[in-house]
Amino acid sequence: MTQETKPWVETPLISSAALSKAAGCKVYLKLENLQPAGSFKSRGIGNYLLERIREHDPTKPIHFYSSSGGNAGLACVTAATTLGHPSTVIVPYITSSLMISKILTAGATHVQRHGNTWFDADTHLRTTIISPTDGTDPSGIYVPPFDHPNIWAGNATMVEEIKSQMEERREGKPDVIVCSIGGGGLFNGIMLGLDNAGWSSEVQVLALETHGADSLSQALTAGHLITLPGITSIATSLGATRVSQQTFEYGQRPNVRSVVLSDAEAAMGAWRLADDERMLVETACGVSVAVCYDGRLAKLLSSKGFRPEMKVVVVVCGGMFNLTSSILGRESPERHDVVDCALCGG
Question: What is the value of pTM for the model shown?
Answer without folding.
Answer: 0.89
